[in-house]
C-alpha cells in the first residue's frame, strides 16, 4: 500500500515511489528507490509537501508518523517555474492571476534538457557497465535498473518529447546500449497512451530496458558491421532473444513482462517472426508493443550500415508492412509520439475528419488539416490543427478510409499538396 508522509518522517528502509509538488523541487532526479542512509538527510530536508512510500517494497510508516497526507490542489505535480507569484490590487493586474517572469519558461525548459542529458549519459554508463558485468560472469544488479526505470518513467511523464529526441540523437557507437533506453522510453510513453496503471507503466519500461540484453553474447564487431552479415553472423544475432531470456531468468525479482518482451520482441502477428513463429493472440500486448518500439527506434537511429530515417518515414513504412505489427497498437504508438503517415485520414470525436500533413521543418510532430464533416457528409473550411494537449473535447479516435465518406484518394492528395496555400484559422489543438 502507498502512503503519503511528511519528509521528516522518512526512515531508512522505506521505499520511495514519488514526491508531492513540482518535480523540480525534490532533491533527486529519480523518484523510485529504497531509502539508504546516504539519502536520509536530503529527503528529510526536501522542500516538498509529502513523499509517497510503498510498504510492499519497504518498511511502512512508523507509529510516530502522521496519518497519510492528502494532497491539496496547489500541490499537484506539474512543471512550472518556481518563482511565479500572484499580483493583485492597483497596478498588479487581475487578482489571482500568475505572472511568469521573463525568461522563466526558457530556464525551465533548459533545466529539463540538462537533466534529460544527464539521465541519458547515466543510462549509457549503466548499460555499458551491465554488459561488462555479464560478460565477466557476474549477475545483473536489479536495484540499479529499478532506479533507472523510475527516472525514465518520471522524465517521460514530464517531458517525453525532450527525452525521446535526446536519445534519438545517439551516436552510432552508442546504439547498442542506448537503443534499449530509447525502447524503454517509448514503451513508457505508449503504456500511458493506453491508460495502463503506474505499475504496468514501470514494468513496460523495465521490459524495454532489458529487451536486447541477449546481444551481450554477440561480438561488437558483428553488431557494428557496416556490410551485410554472413549466414553464420545472422544466426548469432537471431539467437539474442533466447540468450537474453536465459540471462534474465537467472535474475530474481524481474516481472514477467521483461522476460516476455526479451524472448518475443522479434515475433510477428502473422507468424513470420522468430524464434518460435508465434502468431496472433499467442503474443501478449507487451510483446507486440516491444516489437513496435524496437523497430521504430532502429529505423530512426543512425546505424553502422544506414542513416536514420525521419519519424514520419519510419511510421509510414511500419504502417505499410502488412502483418508485421498489431495495427491497433501501432496506431496507439503513433498517437503517443504525435506522428502519423502523411496523407492518412483520421476521425475526430467531434464528427470531423482530418488529413495528416507533413511536419514543419523545425518540428517532428505531424500536423492535421480538418476538412470534412461526417455528420453532414460535406466539406468544411480547411483549418490546420496541430497535435498536442487538448484545449477542448476534440480528440483523434481512429484512422479511416476516406472512400467510406465518398472522398477519393486523389482529392486527399491534392489537398495535401495544396495545404500550404489553404487559409488556416487560429489553430486549435487536438489530444494525441
Describe it for me?
It is a single chain. By secondary structure, the chain is α+β, with helices and mostly antiparallel strands. It folds into three domains: 2-82, no CATH class; 109-334, Hypothetical protein af1432, CATH 1.10.3210.10; 340-431, no CATH class. Helices cover 41% and strands 13% of the residues. It is globular, with a radius of gyration of 24 Å. The model is unreliable at 66-102 and 417-432 (pLDDT under 50). Residues 152-349 form the HD-GYP domain.
Tell me about the biggest sheet? Answer: 6 strands, mixed
Give the radius of gyration. Answer: 24 Å
CATH class of the largest domain: Mainly Alpha
Kindly report how far apart the N and C termini lie.
32 Å
GO molecular function: phosphoric diester hydrolase activity
Protein name: Phosphodiesterase
Biased composition (Polar residues): 103-114
Region (Disordered): 82-115
Attribute tags:
6-stranded mixed beta sheet, 13% strand, alpha+beta, Hypothetical protein af1432, 432 residues, globular, 3 domains
Concise summary:
This protein has 432 residues and is α+β, with helices and mostly antiparallel strands. It folds into three domains: 81 residues, no CATH class; 226 residues, Hypothetical protein af1432 (Orthogonal Bundle); 92 residues, no CATH class.
Task: Describe the secondary-structure layout.
Elements: E1 2-5, E2 15-19, E3 33-34, H1 37-44, E4 51-54, E5 85-87, E6 97-99, H2 104-135, H3 142-158, H4 160-168, H5 175-193, H6 198-210, H7 220-223, H8 231-238, H9 240-249, H10 256-264, H11 285-299, H12 311-320, H13 327-337, E7 345-348, E8 352-357, E9 367-373, E10 378-388, E11 396-400, H14 409-418, E12 430-431
Parallel strand pairs: 10-12
Antiparallel strand pairs: 1-4, 2-3, 2-4, 5-6, 7-8, 7-11, 8-9, 9-10
Helix pairs in contact: 2-3, 2-4, 3-4, 3-5, 3-6, 4-5, 5-6, 5-11, 5-13, 6-10, 9-10, 10-11, 11-12
Region (Disordered): 82-115
Organism: Qipengyuania flava
Biased composition (Polar residues): 103-114
Amino acid at each position: 500500500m502507498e502512503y503519503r508522509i511528511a519528509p521528516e518522517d522518512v526512515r531508512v528502509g522505506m521505499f520511495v515511489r514519488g514526491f508531492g509538488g513540482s518535480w523540480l523541487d525534490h532533491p533527486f532526479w529519480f523518484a523510485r528507490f529504497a531509502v539508504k542512509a546516504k539519502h536520509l538527510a536530503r529527503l528529510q530536508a526536501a522542500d516538498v509537501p509529502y513523499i509517497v512510500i510503498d510498504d510492499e517494497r519497504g518498511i511502512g510508516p512508523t507509529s510516530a508518523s502522521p496519518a497519510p497526507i492528502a494532497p491539496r490542489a496547489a500541490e499537484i505535480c506539474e512543471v512550472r517555474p518556481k518563482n511565479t507569484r500572484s499580483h493583485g490590487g492597483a497596478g498588479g493586474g487581475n487578482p489571482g492571476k500568475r505572472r511568469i517572469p521573463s525568461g522563466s519558461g526558457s530556464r525551465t525548459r533548459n533545466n529539463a534538457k540538462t537533466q534529460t542529458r544527464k539521465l541519458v549519459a547515466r543510462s549509457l554508463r549503466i548499460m555499458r557497465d551491465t554488459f561488462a558485468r555479464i560478460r565477466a560472469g557476474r549477475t545483473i544488479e536489479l536495484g540499479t535498473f529499478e532506479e533507472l526505470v523510475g527516472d525514465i518513467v518520471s522524465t517521460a511523464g514530464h517531458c517525453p518529447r525532450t527525452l525521446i529526441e535526446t536519445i534519438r540523437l545517439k551516436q552510432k557507437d552508442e546504439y547498442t546500449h542506448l537503443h534499449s533506453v530509447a525502447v524503454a522510453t517509448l514503451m513508457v510513453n505508449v503504456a500511458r497512451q493506453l491508460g495502463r496503471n503506474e505499475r504496468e507503466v514501470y514494468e513496460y519500461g523495465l521490459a524495454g530496458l532489458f529487451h536486447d540484453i541477449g546481444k551481450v553474447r554477440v561480438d561488437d564487431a558483428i553488431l557494428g558491421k557496416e556490410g551485410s552479415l554472413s549466414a553464420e553472423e545472422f544466426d548469432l544475432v537471431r539467437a539474442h532473444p533466447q540468450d537474453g531470456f536465459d540471462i534474465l531468468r537467472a535474475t530474481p525479482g524481474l516481472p514477467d513482462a521483461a522476460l516476455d518482451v526479451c524472448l518475443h520482441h522479434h515475433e510477428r502477428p502473422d507468424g513470420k517472426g522468430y524464434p518460435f513463429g508465434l502468431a496472433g493472440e499467442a503474443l501478449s500486448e507487451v510483446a507486440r508493443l516491444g516489437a513496435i518500439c524496437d523497430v521504430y527506434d532502429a529505423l530512426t537511429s543512425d546505424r553502422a550500415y544506414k542513416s536514420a530515417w525521419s519519424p514520419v518515414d519510419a511510421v509510414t513504412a511500419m504502417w505499410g508492412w502488412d502483418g508485421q505489427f498489431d495495427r491497433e497498437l501501432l496506431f496507439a504508438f503513433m498517437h503517443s509520439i504525435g506522428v502519423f503517415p502523411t496523407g492518412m485520414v483520421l476521425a475526430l470525436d467531434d464528427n470531423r475528419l482530418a488529413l495528416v500533413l507533413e511536419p514543419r521543418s523545425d518540428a517532428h510532430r505531424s500536423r492535421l488539416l480538418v476538412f470534412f464533416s461526417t455528420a453532414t457528409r460535406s466539406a468544411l473550411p480547411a483549418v490546420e490543427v496541430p497535435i498536442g494537449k487538448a484545449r477542448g473535447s476534440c480528440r483523434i479516435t481512429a484512422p479511416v478510409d476516406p472512400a467510406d465518406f465518398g472522398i477519393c484518394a486523389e482529392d486527399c492528395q491534392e489537398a495535401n499538396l495544396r495545404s500550404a496555400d489553404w487559409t488556416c484559422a487560429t489553430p486549435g489543438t487536438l489530444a494525441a
